[in-house]
Amino acid sequence: METMTKKNKMYLAGEWVHREKTLPVNDPQDNRLIATVPAASAADMIYAIEQAKEGFRICSEMPVHERIAVLHRAADWINEKREAYAITIASEGSKTIKEARKEVRRCVETLRISAEEARRLNGETISFDQMPGSENRLGYYYRFPIGIIGAITPFNDPLNLVAHKVGPAIAAGNAIIVKPATVTPLSALMLAEAFDHAGLPAKILSVITGNAGEIGDVLVTHPDVRMISFTGGLATGKAIMQKAGLKKMSMELGSNSPVIVLNDANFDDAVESNVSGAFWAAGQNCLGVQRIYVQDGVYDAFVSKFVERTKKYKTGAKQSEQTDMGPMISEKEAKRVEQWVREAVERGARLLCGGNRNGAFYEPTVMTDVPEDCRIVKEEVFGPVVSIFKVTGLEEAIEKSNRVDYGLQAGIFSRDIDKVFRAVRKLDVGGVMVNDSSDYRIDAMPFGGVKGSGIGREGVKFALQEMTEPKVVCFRLTP
């Protein structure tokens, strides 16, 4: 596919370039080679940063209407070629073709929202005369772009999560350098291709492919990079913060999402929503349902129905329209999940379905009676495994939901508005989805968490705030 890799080049400050040293891109389904991409050097990253200084000047001086037009043209390009983008996502990553198509639609929406929010990046007037002695002063503040942004993106949403960083950065007037996940770089390169065709001036955007150890530290530590926007694991996020120095940080570091199902919930809806929430993208989803706390009155029936529905979930070839779930991103990751499940079972957990691995494929897995100090309860499994627990009521469910060092999103199923609002107040998370699983998001909402789930917020409007700073202007009126 000609649009997949721009003939195996990377996008360096507006130019498509080869490198003699390359990295393979393999389909995790069968490990076949589908492409190679340049293995960039530290010198490449330094060059991208140097060019981005001029890119920042260019983008910050672009009229807002021109930034809006570029974003809309990029969105239109992706929409016109949406099936090619979906095939690429489904080839290099874990998503099925149906899941990939949804990601492409969301990417188009993310870029269009970025265009709309560019026109709404406003300040406001300030009443300086609220302070005695300042009666002869008036002024305002406005927001200005911060400069060069370094974006480090994960494999599980290789197109839309890149768009969530690139779209707001350009809308705000910044330059941005993207280091995509090593295993899924093609979708990010195709996003760069869309901006190239949209007429984005050179030097504003770079997508640099390569090993994190070779180029990641350069991006993170360089003093001219004023912000790091990172989506990935908690351990990597902590390491980045220790290295980065004095710069802004926006980090989404995953989760271990709980869902509460009370006796008065819409039972069938709760089952269906949580099966989808647990196994979307083979469970490799920061919002994925990992722990379900079910009130004792409906626990047995819920578990029975949940297992029955899970067994109907079709695992297989990603490009098939009939497949619900594809492989994990690698056999190594599938083996890790297999080990975590085995540990839990050896300690007394009941395996109700799943638990089998075939290469990178790991079956949708449901467990009960899992000891709460098992890794699969305390940490982010990032795989197709869900644990179900019986609770006596809402307070116990909230207390157990909050026990882990994550707090991205949670879900609650109940018809009792008082109980819902109590959960909203007490759940220690960045978002509560009512009568929905934790795995719900639109691209316009603020998105982020507390505790080990990160700092800052994404979602286009809120990313724009992160990627700008307020500047105060005050006039003293002379007599």
Poorly predicted parts: 1-6
Q: Output the number of helix runs.
A: 16
CATH fold-level label of the largest domain: Aldehyde Dehydrogenase, Chain A, domain 1
Into which percent range does the helicity of residues fall?
Answer: 25-40%
Category from helices, strands and their pairing? alpha/beta
User: What does the average pLDDT come to?
Assistant: 96
GO molecular function: lactaldehyde dehydrogenase (NAD+) activity
Enzyme class: oxidoreductase
Function: Part of the sulfo-TAL (or sulfo-SFT) pathway, a D-sulfoquinovose degradation pathway that produces sulfolactate (SL). Catalyzes the oxidation of 3-sulfolactaldehyde (SLA) to sulfolactate (SL).
Domain Aldehyde dehydrogenase: 16-473
Q: Concise description?
A:
This protein is α/β, with parallel strands linked by helices. It is built from 16 helices and 24 strands.
Polypeptide structure, described:
Belongs to the aldehyde dehydrogenase family. This is 3-sulfolactaldehyde dehydrogenase. One of its GO terms (molecular function) is lactaldehyde dehydrogenase (NAD+) activity. InterPro entries: Ald_DH/histidinol_DH (IPR016161), Ald_DH_C (IPR016163), Ald_DH_N (IPR016162), Aldehyde_DH_dom (IPR015590), ALDH-related_metabolic_enz (IPR051020). It holds the Pfam family Aldedh. With 479 residues, this protein is of the alpha/beta class. It has 2 domains: 2-253 and 454-472, Aldehyde Dehydrogenase, Chain A, domain 1; 257-443, Aldehyde Dehydrogenase, Chain A, domain 2. It is 40% helix and 23% strand. It contains 16 helices and 24 strands. The strands form 7 sheets. Strands 14-17-18-13-12-20-21 form a 7-stranded mixed sheet, with helices on both faces. Helix 4 (82-92) crosses helix 5 (97-118). The longest helix has 22 residues, at 97-118. Mean pLDDT is 96; it is low at 1-6.
